[in-house]
């Protein structure tokens, strides 16, 4: 229905891990609304059945949620001080009705009155202080802990919370607007429950509360009657059933066993479009091939250039990504700093003849590359196999090894890549400064590039305090520079997931994090 | 598949003197038995030929993009194309190499190792017997699929691991059959006399036991191959078989299951190839079993 | 061909091995005691195997729990907190000690007691197993009996062909094909998306039909074969000849004497098959998204959830051991041949 989202409106800001600033792409605009016509006016009632791939492996504790499965529940049960609009970047009030910055490192929040937790106890300023301090408590093991540099969090009065930072951090408000990176919990409840309890029980302020947790099969949630944003939520009961296999999930949707699912494969999304509403997806998943340019055959720049020219990106987009991909540099077009553009990228036109010449001129002889990709992801594997096939035509042999995700990331983080190329996909909970640091930060173990010029650019990008325009320019420069020196190969960027729902669900909107954040606005038509 | 009813499927429990009766019976019914075996052999020859010869004749490589993705079967791409536009027929054939060779290698290995255990238990002393059969019982006290799953997860799934794992899970059947036969045989006159006259155990095994047990081992070989090919495909269906880009039937089924409603020929093609191979081995085992009047 | 592809060893090889004819049948109590002791010994070894196996898995739960973007310090702290740094023998003894007190530990991921996880999933697997067994008996026993009656005729050939096909078919392919057929023939049939019986009984029964068929039809193949073989054998017995000679029709004689006498080996096979269901149900639970024990085992294995994997392995092993034991025990009781000839 709608064309591909104008990307300027999207914000990839879900977790700005580095202290880099993401200026809010401050344009208004709404998220994708594909339904909304049928179903009449919003009204209460009904049961919605959701088919989900998995249950949260990390449990229901919001600040432990990293994966889709866990974030989806954090988004229903918990809330932050602020929230994000459907565009994924506009800040909106949530548990705080207003906020102001009183100094470069001090923020003051005014709490909403009359908010209660699911157990009926009222939200107090002390709960907020407890919640924020809990995120940075090392004993909690929250992945979001390192993102905050709190000097202090205090509650000067019953309805005020003051956050003092060590350094200025413009990503703070966005972090506080996400249920997973800053979910507010009840101090009394958390203190009276064990860490294990928190994995299968909840006590948030969100629109839905947990009714039943049945491991491996069902999570039943019901409308929270005491929700502050009346008359939302509308749907009486939302049941999340586990259907691990995508094909089975599709089958379940088609037979009416479930009302909404998420699919990864574009082919499935397009087939389902005939009978269901399918979100357009957000181009936030850049298919990264990180290159080890420090040692091995890829240390030779000519070899890298040859490989870049030897990759037929058009074929990778039409076949590998099943037509869902768009041209992309290291920063996906879905990122606000790219404003929907791939950027002006040299050396990305398919030219096998020149690639062969470059390869011959490089003096590298027979080039054999080891490509490590994540196991159990057929969509990632498809493109890798095509790349292998394409590169074999210019005389480069690629050996694909599939590695479990945890092992892949741990190889990456430890610096022992055990491969010449590592495939990862840019994720929503990463901001450009963060994910570029993962690959290109000076002195980091993960960095496999030795280029002082790039490090300087990186440092500028991370520490800059200039205007929006300047910031975009800095990132655009890095995007082009990396393509020019071929420090990383990016064939395309594609949506990581598509939401599909039946006519039964009305008024549902998706947003860039794809966590069903706005389920509370939807009703059963 | 048809033979004189009374004798054909008679349980192995009924006593008989093994060295002559069954052979005579086999000769008597040889012509009819060979029908099933012949069909089975024919199927297998066909499958092996498709696997090893067909890809050389067809104008596509298994990894090249040969057409539009998800093309239906047609004159150019006999079985259509897969999600990457690769020729599905050629991929199916090449995948056959994986499945067929693992099944064969795994069962032969199981035959050698399992029979060795069986002979040792049958001829060796009480303690050796108890020890070995205890181990066999342990192996059997566990679903073989799960054992395979665990082993492959631990040792990563290469061709070698798969062959080793699959032969280990098939080994107990050989061991039990061989041991049971040895226990029967060693009480028989010709073996007893050899034992009394002080012939070494190894000689007894080779000269007297092996020739009598060998046909049983062959039957079990075919049966095992049929099981192993199904096990291998089950493992690779669960994503734990030979890793891509090497194609295998189980994985192809799992992958094309995603496109079941729109391109059903993908699942049916791979499933059909798997079925034909297991039928091939099964028919051979069946035919031999009938001829030897042995374990079903 | 052996029982089912992924199933248990056939009745014959087990019976031949366990109740080997070289071993004289000891008095019943001693026999039972020995069998139980042996089962316990196997279980003990299995506990070591299970424990060792999961620790051989590459990676550990701390890595999975900490997530991809965690730093090494977080992982190390988690590993420490989970007790993964203790010596293996100590970990094993701790686990075994708790096990003997009925404490199977908790899942690393959702913090729920392992026993509870198993209890929640067990009904689903049992239901599937039961339904599949019913399906297999419903077609296997009559088909085998009739085939024996009509030996060599068309029905016999058809039944034997079907049985052969059942043994050769990979269950997961069969399951997928059933889904395909159902989605074309009855698009609104809830072929997948299993709902537990306690939730919506009607929906549950509907969603159990296809998995039960997928599991039960191939399973019936073995039954069909054994039924046929046993019946043919029974026909050769004196009492049936007598019955026939006294004027009873073949059908009457079959129903009166044959079925009862053939039931011994068939019950044995059915029992062993129930244990064999475990392996196949892993696949079928995968195809039909049924939250059962098989799925739990595979998932916990993949996620390196040590306590859960260990408990599942022990449980599945226990099922096998108990079923083998039961078959061993009832076999001499109900199969006249075993009692008489030994």
Automatic annotation (TrEMBL), chain A:
Residues 1-25 form the signal peptide. Belongs to the bacterial solute-binding protein 5 family. It comes from the Bacteria. It comes from Actinoallomurus vinaceus. Residues 28-43 have a biased composition (Gly residues). InterPro entries: Peptide/Ni-bd, SBP_5, SBP_5_dom. Residues 91-443 form the Solute-binding protein family domain. This is ABC transporter substrate-binding protein.
UniProtKB/TrEMBL annotation, chain B:
The chain crosses the membrane at residues 33-54, 100-123, 130-152, 158-178, 265-284. Keywords: Cell membrane, Membrane, Transmembrane, Transmembrane helix, Transport. Its main location: membrane. Residues 1-24 are annotated as: Disordered. Belongs to the binding-protein-dependent transport system permease family. It is a multi-pass membrane protein. The keyword Nucleotide-binding does not apply. The keyword Ribosomal protein does not apply. It comes from Actinoallomurus vinaceus. This is ABC transporter permease. Residues 96-285 form the ABC transmembrane type-1 domain. PANTHER family: D,D-DIPEPTIDE TRANSPORT SYSTEM PERMEASE PROTEIN DDPC-RELATED (PTHR43386:SF1), OLIGOPEPTIDE TRANSPORT SYSTEM PERMEASE PROTEIN APPC (PTHR43386). It holds the Pfam family BPD_transp_1. It is found in: Cell membrane.
TrEMBL record, chain C:
Pfam families: BPD_transp_1 (PF00528), BPD_transp_1_N (PF19300). It is found in: Cell membrane. The chain crosses the membrane at residues 14-33, 40-58, 128-149, 161-189, 209-227, 311-334. SUPFAM superfamilies: MetI-like. Residues 122-331 form the ABC transmembrane type-1 domain. The keyword Transmembrane helix applies. Keywords: Cell membrane, Membrane, Transmembrane, Transmembrane helix, Transport. InterPro entries: BPD_transp_1_N, MetI-like, MetI-like_sf. CDD domains: TM_PBP2 (cd06261). It is a multi-pass membrane protein. Belongs to the binding-protein-dependent transport system permease family. This is ABC transporter permease. It comes from Actinoallomurus vinaceus.
């Amino acid at each position: 229905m709608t064309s591909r989202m104008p990307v300027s409106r999207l914000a990839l800001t879900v977790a700005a891990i580095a202290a880099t600033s993401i200026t809010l792409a401050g344009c208004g605009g709404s998220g994708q609304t594909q339904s909304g016509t049928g179903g009449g006016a919003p009204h209460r009632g009904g049961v919605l059945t959701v088919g989900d791939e998995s249950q949260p492996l990390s449990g229901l504790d919001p600040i432990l949620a990293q994966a889709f499965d866990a974030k989806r529940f954090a988004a229903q049960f918990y809330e932050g001080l602020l929230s994000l609009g459907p565009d994924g970047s506009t800040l909106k009030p949530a548990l705080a009705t207003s906020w102001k910055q009183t100094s470069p490192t001090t923020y003051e929040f005014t709490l909403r009155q009359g908010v209660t937790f699911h157990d009926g106890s009222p939200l107090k300023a002390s709960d907020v202080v407890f919640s924020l301090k809990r995120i940075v408590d090392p004993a909690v093991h929250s992945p979001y802990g390192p993102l905050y540099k709190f000097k202090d969090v205090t509650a000067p009065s019953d309805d005020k919370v003051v956050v003092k930072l060590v350094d200025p951090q413009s990503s703070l408000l966005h972090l506080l607007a996400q249920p997973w990176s800053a979910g507010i919990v009840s101090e009394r409840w958390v203190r009276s429950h064990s860490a294990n309890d928190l994995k299968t029980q909840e006590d948030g302020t969100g629109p839905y509360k947990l009714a039943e947790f049945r491991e491996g099969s069902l999570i039943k949630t019901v409308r929270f009657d005491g929700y502050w944003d009346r008359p939302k939520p509308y749907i009486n009961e939302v049941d999340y059933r586990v259907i691990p296999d995508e094909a089975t999930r599709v089958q379940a949707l088609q037979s009416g066993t479930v009302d909404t699912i998420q699919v990864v494969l574009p082919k499935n999304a397009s087939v389902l479009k005939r009978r269901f509403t399918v979100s357009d997806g957000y181009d936030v998943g850049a298919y990264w091939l990180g290159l080890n340019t420090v040692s091995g055959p890829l240390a030779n720049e000519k070899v890298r250039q040859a490989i870049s020219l030897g990759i037929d990106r058009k074929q990778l987009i039409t076949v590998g990504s099943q037509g869902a991909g768009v041209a992309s540099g290291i920063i996906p077009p879905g990122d606000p700093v790219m404003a929907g553009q791939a950027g002006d990228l040299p050396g990305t036109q398919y030219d096998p003849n020149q690639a062969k010449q470059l390869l011959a001129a490089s003096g590298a002889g027979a080039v054999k590359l080891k490509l490590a990709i994540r196991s159990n992801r057929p969509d990632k594997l498809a493109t890798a196999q095509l790349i292998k096939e394409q590169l074999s035509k210019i005389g480069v042999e690629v050996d694909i090894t599939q590695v479990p995700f945890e092992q892949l990331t741990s190889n990456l983080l430890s610096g022992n890549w055990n491969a010449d190329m590592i495939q990862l996909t840019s994720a929503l909970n990463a901001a450009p400064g963060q994910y570029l640091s993962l690959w290109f930060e000076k002195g980091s173990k993960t960095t496999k590039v030795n280029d002082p010029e790039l490090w300087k650019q990186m440092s500028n990008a991370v520490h800059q305090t200039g205007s929006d325009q300047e910031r975009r320019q800095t990132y655009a420069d890095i995007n082009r520079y990396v393509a020019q020196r071929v420090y990383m190969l990016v064939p395309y960027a594609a949506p990581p997931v598509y939401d599909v729902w039946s006519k039964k669900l009305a008024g549902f909107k998706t947003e860039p994090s794809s966590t069903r954040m706005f389920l509370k606005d939807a009703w059963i038509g | 598949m048809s033979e004189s009813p009374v004798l054909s499927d008679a349980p192995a429990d009924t006593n008989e003197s093994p060295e002559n009766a069954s052979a005579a019976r086999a000769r008597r019914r040889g012509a009819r038995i060979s029908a099933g075996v012949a069909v089975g052999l024919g199927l297998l020859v066909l499958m092996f030929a498709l696997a090893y010869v067909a890809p050389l004749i067809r104008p596509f490589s298994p990894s090249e993009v040969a057409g539009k993705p998800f093309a239906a079967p047609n004159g150019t791409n006999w079985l259509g194309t897969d999600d990457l536009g690769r020729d599905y027929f050629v991929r199916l054939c090449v995948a056959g190499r994986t499945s067929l060779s693992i099944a064969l290698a795994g069962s032969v290995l199981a035959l050698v190792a399992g029979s060795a255990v069986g002979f040792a238990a049958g001829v060796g002393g009480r303690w050796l017997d108890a020890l070995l059969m205890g181990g066999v019982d342990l192996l059997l006290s566990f679903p073989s699929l799960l054992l395979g799953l665990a082993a492959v997860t631990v040792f990563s799934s290469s061709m070698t691991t798969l062959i080793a794992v699959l032969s280990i899970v098939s080994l107990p059947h050989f061991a039990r059959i061989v041991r049971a036969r040895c226990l029967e045989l060693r009480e028989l006159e010709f073996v007893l006399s050899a034992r009394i006259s002080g012939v070494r155990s190894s000689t007894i095994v080779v000269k007297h036991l092996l020739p009598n047990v060998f046909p049983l081992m062959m039957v079990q070989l075919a049966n095992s191959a049929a099981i192993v090919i199904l096990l291998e495909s089950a493992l690779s269906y669960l994503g734990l078989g030979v890793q891509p880009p090497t194609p295998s039937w189980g994985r192809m089924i799992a992958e094309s299951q995603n496109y079941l409603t729109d391109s059903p020929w993908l699942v049916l093609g791979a499933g059909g190839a798997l079925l034909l191979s297991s039928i091939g081995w099964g028919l051979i085992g069946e035919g031999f079993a009938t001829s030897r009047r042995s374990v079903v | 061909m052996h029982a089912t592809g992924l199933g248990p060893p056939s009745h014959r090889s087990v019976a031949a091995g366990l109740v080997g004819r070289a071993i004289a049948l000891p008095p019943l109590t001693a026999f039972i005691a020995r069998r139980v002791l042996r089962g316990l010994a196997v279980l003990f070894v299995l506990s070591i195997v299970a424990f060792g196996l999961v620790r051989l898995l590459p990676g550990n739960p701390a890595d999975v729990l900490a997530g991809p973007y965690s730093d090494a310090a977080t992982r190390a702290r988690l590993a420490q907190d989970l007790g993964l740094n203790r010596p293996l023998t100590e970990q094993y003894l701790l686990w075994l000690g708790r096990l003997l007190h009925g404490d199977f530990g908790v899942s690393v991921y959702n913090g729920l007691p392992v026993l509870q996880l198993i209890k929640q999933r067990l009904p689903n697997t049992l239901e599937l197993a039961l339904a599949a067994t019913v399906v297999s008996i419903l077609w296997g026993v009559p088909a085998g009996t009739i085939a024996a009656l009509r030996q060599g005729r068309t029905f016999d050939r058809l039944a034997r062909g079907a049985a052969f096909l059942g043994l050769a078919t990979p269950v997961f392919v069969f399951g997928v094909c059933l889904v395909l057929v159902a989605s074309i023939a009855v698009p609104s049939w809830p072929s997948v998306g299993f709902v537990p019986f306690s939730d919506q009984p009607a929906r549950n029964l509907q969603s159990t039909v296809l998995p039960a068929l997928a599991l039960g039809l191939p399973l019936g193949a073995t039954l069909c074969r054994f039924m046929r073989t046993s019946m043919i054998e029974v026909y050769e017995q004196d009492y049936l000849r007598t019955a026939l000679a006294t004027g009873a029709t073949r059908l009457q004689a079959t129903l009166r004497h044959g079925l009862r006498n053939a039931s011994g080996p068939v019950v044995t096979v059915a029992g062993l098959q129930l244990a064999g269901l475990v392996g196949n149900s892993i696949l079928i639970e995968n195809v039909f998204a049924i939250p059962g024990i098989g799925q739990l085992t595979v998932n916990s294995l993949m996620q390196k959830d040590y306590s859960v994997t260990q408990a599942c392995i022990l449980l599945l092993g226990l099922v096998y051991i108990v079923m083998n034991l039961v078959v061993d025990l009832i076999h001499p009781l109900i199969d006249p041949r075993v009692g008489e000839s030994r």
